[in-house]
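User: I'm preparing a small set of examples for a lab meeting where we compare how different chains pack in three dimensions. I only have the primary sequence for this one, and I'd like the structure in token form so I can line it up with the others. Please keep the answer compact; I'll paste it straight into my notes.
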Amino acid sequence: MTGGPGAPPVRRLLIWRHGRTEWNASGRFQGQLDPPLDDEGRTQAARTARSLAATLRNEDTVLVSSDLQRAVDTAAALASLLGLPVRVDERLREHGLGSWEGLTRDEVAERFPEQYEDWLAGRPVPGRGGEAQADVAARALAAVADLPPASTAVLMTHGGTAGRLVEALLGLGPEHRRAFGPLGNCHWSELLFQASGWRLMRHNVSVPAPGQLEGSRRPAGDRGPSGSDAPDAPRSGATPEEAPPGPVEDADAAG
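Assistant: Understood. Below is the structure token output for the 255-residue chain.
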């Protein structure tokens, strides 16, 4: 462990979401199913890995990935540049979504209308199966506690798990659910541990594609704003996060 009593084994965390899959692009809930990266996702992984490697070359770094292949393959792009092994930890895998996994948003709305309404409202979704939000946070926190000592840990994970982990590290309760916008594909958050605990230093950071400015509109098919391995609403101007008075939506918005 680094630091004094109660200090975590690392002082800096980069919580990184995997690159895009065809299911992300076509609007299909993934959860713990495991579609591979698509061509755009592999391009995102390579581009982001080059940027992160430039900042981590002189760091004592550990790289840990979810066991799902889309995460392992994204992490491998960085591992090859830094000469690091990819440690695999299933506790970083995505929020299990039970009977919704593999379905599109429209299919869920048609087959499970009451569950879908609960999800849109941010309520628990009884009968769906899968995992509770608190259980996702607990297993991700346990993965952090078990990290080997290092100055920086890069955690390759998923949108839903990343959200629950950031909230848990910052001590945010259910009433602060969705206080932060969700990670896009291949985006990351940076947290530092200081005397008072974890602080969020940067959030939803990305490496723009060539010719694209940071914060500009994503290429067609990039479903980045969804909060996990789940579809965004079809674009009709604003994203769900931007369109009042509708709720903020993400795939793991229930337990």
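A couple of notes for your slides: Residues 48 and 207 are 6 Å apart (CA to CA). The beta strands are 10-17, 61-65, 87-88, 150-157, 188-194, 197-205.

User: Perfect, thanks.
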